Amino acid sequence: MAILPLLLLVLGLFPVNEAIAQKPNILLFLADDLGIGEIGCFGNNTIRTPHIDRLAREGVKLTHHISAAPLCSPSRAAFMTGRYPIRTGMSGHENGSKKVLLWTGVSGGLPANETTFAKILKDQGYSTGIIGKWHLGVSCNTRDDFCHHPLNHGFDYFYGMPFTLLNDCEITRESEIPRGLKMAIWYHAQVFLITVLTLLVGKMWKFINIPWTLIVVGALCGTLYFMYWYLAFAFLPYWNCIIMRDFEIVEQPMDLETKAGQVVKEAKAFINRNKDGPFLLFVSFLHIHTPLYTTKNFRGRSKHDLYGDNIEEMDWMIGQILESIDQEGLINNTFTYFTSDHGGYLEGMDGSPHLKGSNGIYRGGKGMGGLEGGIRVPGIVRWPGVLPANTVIDKPTSLMDIYPTVTKLGGGKTPQDRIIDGKDLMPLLQGHVAQSDHEFMFHYCSEHLHAVRWQQPNSDIVWKVHYISPKFPEGAGACYGSKLCSCSGEKVIYHVPPLLYNLSNDPSEKNPLPNDSGLYGEVLQTVQDAVARHNASLHMVPQQLYGLNNVWKPWLQPCCGIFPFCWCNKQSAK
Questions:
Q1: Catalytic residue at 72?
Q2: Who has greater pLDDT, 193 or 126?
Q3: Which of 64, 135, 438, 450 is catalytic?
Q4: Which of 7, 192, 240, 502 could form a disulfide with 163 if both were Cys (CB 3.0 to 4.6 A apart)?
């Protein structure tokens, strides 16, 4: 029986796509904080993104593409593992605003027992590289165990930032550390100093009868406590704003002016080194996260101040990398994907209306749980000759889908000992099926389930149930006055009964269905049953962003000198 297909193939009667017959190169672009309303091919006509638009013309545009979380670390963990962050312990924690990793020198991060798509592809003979932002941890117990580092999660090569951009990375910006917290610590330090001096004087003049040992131990403990906070705050750019190549720190602190050009240079060099393939290149941009640092060549070029400048610079970077793919003759054997880790940041910076994100017609933004603007992101997939060009798909898809998709394309298999929430995109992209494999999607804010969407079978209708939403100031569409919206407590609205939207007719989530209708009850019951099944599939795992796992530990701080004198610039192209 096996002879017939072979004979037909020889005779040319059994068609085969040469690009699929061999393992494709995988090129992944992930923007940081980019809203779906900020690029041309998704409706923006004032910011120039010709290279991203080119990808859409030559590929498939996903207009119902969903992030697994509205914040960086949880979303990126889901992207790398194909699993909801709640399953990996990367969902975040409301207490103390520990929703993402807060330092490079913390013990939390992507667990070592999680299998990334990079690990699977590396086992299949791929050269694997990540260039840009990681934000999934560095070490666990010692400064150089690198348990969470990209090179211990399947990547052969890493050049970039193990953390994320902060205002502190640009010395002209106000610190990310709240002024009120700094003042409170300084006030308590003064109270502590006055108390110690009073005790010393009182003891010397015999006004008080406290043992010297107690006074000395108390003074020493208090001094160490306040020194800890001083080191943490005063040297923040040296702790978090660093660049690594593989395990080595090459810039501490980093030089922002050189970063866009260096990321492009590193990406081009990786493509050139591995042009004989197959390779996986994950370009994880620092753009367009605040402080929106843009190099001199792009400042003032857009119609939207520094925000638009930053997006246009990122688009240029994409164009430069795609040019290398073209020049090496790799376009027809490269699966290219573009997206953002979550929605745009509406609270912006400096109080300027020009320095905040746009999520188009969708309500909400970064950090806002299940609101559509925080999780609906641009998605584009290009593979000439395999995927149709200039095509639009408006079915629910997820960033987690890249995991099983590239795993299968690379000849690997997804792990069978755990739940993988992502779905293989290829049947949908190629038009072999009419609907997405995602019947339900669950939308969390930290560990709290805020919303659920349901793609009704054999229908074009997508329903969405909201259980919790952020509470905005009156007349506002974001949590102005605070850095991010809350996920629980007094600053959210608990919807009792839940709100139900027909996203197919009401994507802006403006008109909930009446809760006294029969249809409302039927849909809500279907979703409630799905939530019960989902909850039953969850298991207790170590929480990576909770408590001491997300507190700065000096002994874990990456340092290229003798701690705390961490400074170096060893930058050179590989």
A1: yes
A2: 126
A3: 135
A4: 240
